[in-house]
Amino acid sequence: MQLFIVFFIDAYYNISIKSTGILNWFVKRGCQQMTPYLFVVDDDLLINIPSLMKMISNNSFHSNTLYGLYLTDIEPHPSGKWSVSLNDYPNRTFPSFITGASTLYPSLIVNKLVDKIFQLVEEDKSIFFLDDVLITGIIADQVGIQRAAMSGIEDCSYTDLFLRTIISECNNVRRTYVWSKFILSRIGQNTYEMDRLISRTIYMKWQGNFKHMRNGTAIIQSNRFDQSILIILSGYHPNTSCLVLFIILFVFISIFIPKLISFRQSTTTSKLPLTSSASSGTNSLRLLAPIKQ
Questions:
Q1: d(Cα 17, Cα 49) in Å, to the nearest integer?
Q2: Model's pTM, two decimal places?
Q3: Distance of alpha carbon 157 from alpha carbon 162, whole angstroms
Q4: Pairing between β-strand 97-106 and β-strand 217-219 as defined by DSSP bridges
Q5: CA-CA distance, 252 to 230, in Å (whole number)?
C-alpha cells in the first residue's frame, strides 16, 4: 500500500478524506493486530461504555460486517449540507449504509476499505463527499462487506442511556440532562429532577423538505441564499418562523414604506415641468399649477 500525503481544507465537504485518514492511521500502525474492533463515533454522542463493552465481549459480531445505525432505501437529500445533485449521484437511492456518527468496524476488514479508497485515488476517480455513504455503503458493496444494525442505538426522543448503548441527535442542553440522568442512574440516585428538566426541553427529529420528485430523486430548485434564509428562520418550530416573518414584514411596512412614499412625492414635486411666462413678456419661469376659477 502506498502512503498518500494530502493537503486539504478542513471543511465538512472534505470529511471523506478525514474519515479515510482515521482508517489509514489504524491500519498503518498495525492496530488490527491489537484490537478486534475499531469504533468511530462523533464527539456529540452519548455512549454507555459498560453496555458497549458487554456487547462486544459477547462476540455477537461477524468479522465481515459493519455495525451501527443501519439505513436502507435512503434517497439523496435535496437541500442542506447533505444535498446531492443528480450529476453527483444519479441513482434513486443510496446503497444500504451505516451512519457515520457511530460505526463499529471489525479490525480485519478496515484494510480492505482503505485499499479500495486509495485505488480510486490512483485511478483519479471522484470521491463522494458523504463519508458514511461512500465508505460503509458504496465501497463496502464493492469489496463484499456486509452491513447490519447494532442494538441499543436511540435518538434523543429516548432519554434513558442507562438502558441503551448510544443516544444521538441531542441539542446541547438536552444532552447535558440526559448524561446527568445516566450518571445518577449508575450510582443509584433518583433521576426525578433530571426527568423534569428533560421534559422542559424540545426534541424534534429532522425531516427532509421535498419539493418535487425527478426520477425518484427529490430536487429543490432554489439558490443557496434562499436556502440559508429558510434555515435561519425555520429553527426548530414552525410557529416561531411565522412569527419572525410577520415581525420582519411589519417593520418593513411601518418604517420603510412611508419613507419611500415621502421620498417619491418630494422627488415628483421637484421635477414638475417648467414653462416661460408669455404674458409678462419676460423670460421668467413659473411652475405649472391648476388654474383657479
A1: 28
A2: 0.69
A3: 14
A4: unpaired
A5: 18
Domain enclosing residue 238, as ranges: 224-266
Inter-residue contact 67 to 150 (CB < 8 Å): yes
Q: Phi and psi for 88 in degrees, rounded to 5?
A: -75, -35
DSSP bridge pairs for 286? 275
User: Would you say 133 and 94 are in contact if contact means Cβ atoms under 8 Å apart?
Assistant: yes
Cα–Cα distance measured from residue 178 to residue 51, given in angstroms and rounded to the nearest whole number: 16
Domain identity same for 119 and 240: no
Among 133, 154, 175, give the residue marking a domain's end.
154
Joined together, the cell numbers standing for residue 277 give: 411666462
Specify the DSSP class assigned to residue 77: B
Q: How many other C-beta atoms lie within 10 A of the C-beta of residue 287?
A: 9
- Which segment, 174-178, 212-216, 278-282, is predicted with the most confidence on average? 174-178
Q: For residue 59, what are the CA distances in angstroms to 39, 56, 148, 284?
A: 15, 6, 15, 105
Taking a C-beta distance cutoff of 8 angstroms, is the pair 26, 136 a contact? no
Q: Specify the DSSP class assigned to residue 6.
A: -
pLDDT tens for 26-72 read 999 999 999 999 999 999 999 999 999 999 998 789 999 999 999 99
Q: How long a stretch of residues is the chain? A: 293
- Do 44 and 146 lie in one domain? The reply is yes
Query: Helix H segments across the chain?
Result: 15-28, 49-57, 110-122, 131-133, 140-142, 172-186, 192-199, 224-234, 238-251, 257-270
Among 99, 123, 154, residue at a domain's last position: 154
Owner of C-alpha cell 435518538: 155
CB distance 187 to 207 below 8 Å: no
